[in-house]
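Here comes my example:
=====
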Amino acid sequence: MENPAGKFWSRTLFWGIVAVAAVVRLCCLGSIPFMHDEFSALFRTGYNSFGQLITKGVTPDAHPAGAQLILAATTALAGWDEFWVKLPFALMGLGSVVLVYGISRKVFNKTSALFVASYVAATQFFVFYSQIARPYSSGLFFLLLATLAAVEFVRSDKRQTLWIPIFVTALVASSMMHYFAMLMAGFLFLGFACIVGRQHWKRTALLGLAAVVIYAPNFPVMWSQLSAGGIGDWLGRPTWYFLPEFLAYSVHFSWALALVLATFFFLGLRTKYAEKPIGKQWIILFTASFVLSFAVGMAYSFLRTPVIQYSTLFFSFPFFVLGLAGLMRPMKPTFNVVMTVLILGVSLFTLTLERKHFWMMQHQGYEQIASRFAQNRKTLADSVSLAAVGGSERMLNFYQQRFGVDSVRLFNKDHAMADFESWVDHCSTPWFAVGWTDYASFEWVEYVRSRFPRQVEHENWFNSGYYLFQRDTLTGELNQKTEKVYLLERNIQGIKKFSEDDEFGLLWEIPVDTVLTPFDGIWVAGVEFIAHSTMQNASIVMEVKKDSLPQPLLWRSGNLSGRQLMPGDTSRIVVAYHLDSGPAMKSGSVLRFYIWNSGHENFSVTKRWFYTRKYEPVLFGLYKPL
């Protein structure tokens, strides 16, 4: 029996963990702008009937109905206010901290419970997914609730009447949030069936059948979504470094946090397992569920279409941590106090100062672009042209309307490149501001730069950026403070004239090792030309080749985006490649840049260039090192 001092410290530490978890999730919740995925879901609410919500708001998506139902209810009650939209998900994220503590406390011991709860309370992986209105925190919450119900079911015959409906309901609710949550629910149910034993197989089978029956109305939507095969072609196949990179992310890429966690884990590690024999079964269940879920995600990603990413591990990784924590033995209150304080302290320090989590979350592209445009319009009035490129015009317009910015041209990143380039070519203002978000290709920005070479302002945020350019009538060339120029050739009479007999030309080569340093982030190539005939098919190619390989490591092209030029017209083509977005470049390979006159047209190239731009970690800073 625990002494009064031990009880006091256990309760104090538990409520301290809950307080920290609540503060980091709720302190700036209302000032975190919506991100792309949240907009996508929010735009699929507000229908006139429940049937429309399902057919138009759920079925076209890649997720079950659960989170969409929560959003529909929240927006109907409180509108599109960031705090109220995100609050249910933040509270379920907070509830998950309480649940991991309760599960570990009941199955293992207080030291294990404090270890896992401290970790989940203040690390970025769990905080981030509690602050976005998506199905992750809700899916994990119901998985943990089902697990707690299963634990209580096994531990006590007296309270089974209470925990059985909670167990079944939580299994169904988690399955309605995300298909990887459904996968974990299946693994947990099978593990639960093994733990309760054959003497209860009939009751267990009935519980599973009840869950399936309750979920059954979702089957048509599920079949439609899974028949689509995947989540689109934007996600690449995982590399074999995926898991090590994720584990590094899970400890904030911080040796300090990794050392603190490892030290207390090994100091508390059991030498033998004798206290609670059934605890060993839960360790196996938790660990095996993570391994199986990860294996299924990897196999599907390689054999059919890529689906695995950090977010899909959100439902299984906490169980892996629970399994590890189960290997720890009960320790004295002093150990528990020092462990909890250090894990929370180092997690908060690295979360705030090294990961810059709160700054990153409060500075999201859609809102920040609108804020900068509002400043531009105030200071430069009508002498600046404003353009924003992103996931959709409606997403871009949300914060533009909130900031009251007028005369902004909005472009969907997957369409309208020709309209954009034509507009830039004929733009007469001395200033041009462009904002991008949602993996918009850098050709949008670099095309503006080719016409407005002087960069005046620039700032990046997660997966987004803003630039203010000015026509530089003095030099008309690149601003070499921000670019490292490897090729810049200009001849108004023409560097080379292409005729219908010239399909390829102006090949320029350079060893990749020369233009690929830790400081390089983007390769940019471009040409300026004069049409001598009607033309619309010319393009430029950037490729990386290695003699020992049959296929190029990289092949990208830029073209006129459907524009048609008449004789005498001047135009430009730009191609840009972000070095974080593709395969690793092999040492000894060669970068090639050339013209491809696939339409056998007549034109003269008057200028060509190639330069690199610096790597900016903030662009992927919510997932990668800063």
